[in-house]
C-alpha cells in the first residue's frame, strides 16, 4: 500500500530483519539499549512466523519509519489466555518526524484490513498509562476500546470479524527456591530494552554472590502459561516495571535479601 506522500506499508519478511526496531534510532540521551539491538534482531529473525510477525512503514527511500509487531494468539509469547485467531500486538512505533501527520492511521488501516482478510477475529493490545510506551490514547485514536484494566495496563480490543473475544490475563504462578533469594530471568529477547535489562539484572544479581540464585528460563508458550509471566522476577515477585536503573534493581534485590535473613 502506498499513499500520496510516497510512504508505504509492507509485511515484514526475513529480508527485513536487519531493519527492525526503528525506535532504537531515537533513544533518549544516556541510554545504551541499542547495544542489545543485534541480539533482538537475531531473535526476531529466528522467531519470525513462529512467535512474531509484523508490518513496516517505509518512507520514499525505503527507510523504516514505523512498525507494528504482533503474533496470533495461538503463538504469542504473552501472559494471556485468548481464544484462537486473534492478533496480539507486542509493540508499535513511529519516528518523531512522522508523527501527527496521519501516517499512524495509514499504517494501522493497512494492518487492520490485511489481518481481516486473513480471517483474524480482531486485534488486542495491552496498552499502558505510561506516556513514553504504548500509551492507551494512541490506540484509542485508532478505534481500540478498553475491555479490561489490570494495574497500569489497559487491555484494548479492535474488532475485525468478531465484536467480542474471550481473553484474561494469567495469574503469576512462580514459586522460587527456599534456600536463598532467587532472581528469575526469562530469555524473552523480542525487545532490545528487555535484552539490556536481562543482562543488567543478571550482572547485579551476580554481585550479591551466594546470597542470590539466578535462574534463566526459555519463554516457550508452555512456560509463559505455566508461570504467568515472561518478565524478570525477584524472589517470585514482579518488583521491576519496564526499564529500570541499576540502582533500582540493586534495591529490589537487597530488599528481598534483607527479608530473607529473618
Description:
The protein is an alpha+beta fold and about 260 residues long. It has two domains: about 160 residues, Gcn5-related N-acetyltransferase (GNAT) (Aminopeptidase); about 80 residues, Glutaredoxin (3-Layer(aba) Sandwich), CATH 3.40.30. Helix content is about 25%, strand content about 25%. It contains six helices and twelve strands. The strands form three sheets. The protein has a seven-stranded mixed beta sheet with strand order 1-2-3-5-6-8-7. Helix 4 packs across helix 6. The longest helix has 15 residues. The chain is globular and about 60 Å long. The model has no long low-confidence stretch (mean pLDDT about 95).
Q: Can you give keywords for this protein?
A:
12 strands, 3-stranded mixed sheet, Glutaredoxin, alpha+beta, Aminopeptidase, single chain, 2 domains, 262 residues, 7-stranded mixed sheet, 26% strand
Strand content: 25-35%
Number of strands: 12
CATH class of the largest domain: Alpha Beta
Largest sheet: 7 strands, mixed
Set out the fold topology.
Elements: E1 8-11, H1 37-47, E2 53-58, E3 64-72, E4 80-82, E5 87-94, H2 103-117, E6 122-128, H3 136-141, E7 145-150, E8 153-159, E9 167-169, E10 181-186, H4 192-206, E11 212-217, H5 221-227, E12 233-234, H6 246-260
Parallel strand pairs: 5-6, 10-11
Antiparallel strand pairs: 1-2, 2-3, 3-5, 4-9, 6-8, 7-8, 10-12
Helix pairs in contact: 4-6
In short:
The protein has 262 residues and is of the alpha+beta class. It has helices spanning 37-47, 103-117, 136-141, 192-206, 221-227, 246-260, and strands at residues 8-11, 53-58, 64-72, 80-82, 87-94, 122-128, 145-150, 153-159, 167-169, 181-186, 212-217, 233-234.
Amino acid at each position: 500500500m502506498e499513499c500520496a506522500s510516497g510512504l508505504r506499508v509492507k509485511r515484514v519478511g526475513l529480508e527485513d530483519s536487519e531493519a527492525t526496531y526503528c525506535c532504537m534510532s531515537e533513544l533518549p540521551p544516556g541510554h545504551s539499549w541499542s547495544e542489545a539491538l543485534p541480539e533482538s534482531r537475531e531473535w526476531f529473525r529466528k522467531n519470525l512466523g513462529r512467535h512474531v510477525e509484523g508490518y513496516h512503514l517505509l518512507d520514499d527511500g525505503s527507510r523504516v519509519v514505523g512498525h507494528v509487531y504482533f503474533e496470533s494468539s495461538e503463538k504469542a509469547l504473552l501472559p494471556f489466555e485468548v481464544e484462537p485467531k486473534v492478533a496480539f500486538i507486542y509493540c508499535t512505533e513511529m519516528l518523531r518526524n512522522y508523527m501527527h501527520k496521519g501516517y499512524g492511521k495509514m499504517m494501522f488501516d493497512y494492518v487492520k484490513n490485511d489481518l481481516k482478510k486473513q480471517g483474524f477475529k480482531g486485534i488486542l493490545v495491552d496498552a499502558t498509562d505510561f506516556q513514553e510506551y504504548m500509551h492507551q490514547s494512541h490506540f484509542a485514536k485508532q478505534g481500540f476500546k478498553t475491555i479490561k484494566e489490570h494495574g497500569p495496563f489497559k487491555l484494548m480490543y479492535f474488532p475485525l470479524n468478531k465484536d467480542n473475544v474471550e481473553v484474561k490475563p494469567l495469574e503469576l504462578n512462580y514459586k522460587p527456591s527456599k534456600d536463598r533469594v532467587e532472581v528469575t530471568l526469562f530469555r524473552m529477547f523480542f525487545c532490545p530494552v528487555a535484552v539490556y535489562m536481562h543482562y543488567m539484572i543478571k550482572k547485579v544479581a551476580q554481585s550479591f554472590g551466594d546470597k542470590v540464585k539466578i535462574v534463566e528460563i526459555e519463554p516457550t508458550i508452555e512456560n509463559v502459561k505455566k508461570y504467568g509471566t515472561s518478565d524478570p522476577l525477584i524472589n517470585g515477585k514482579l518488583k521491576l516495571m519496564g526499564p529500570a536503573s541499576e540502582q533500582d534493581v540493586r534495591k529490589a534485590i537487597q530488599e528481598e535479601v534483607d527479608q530473607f535473613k529473618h
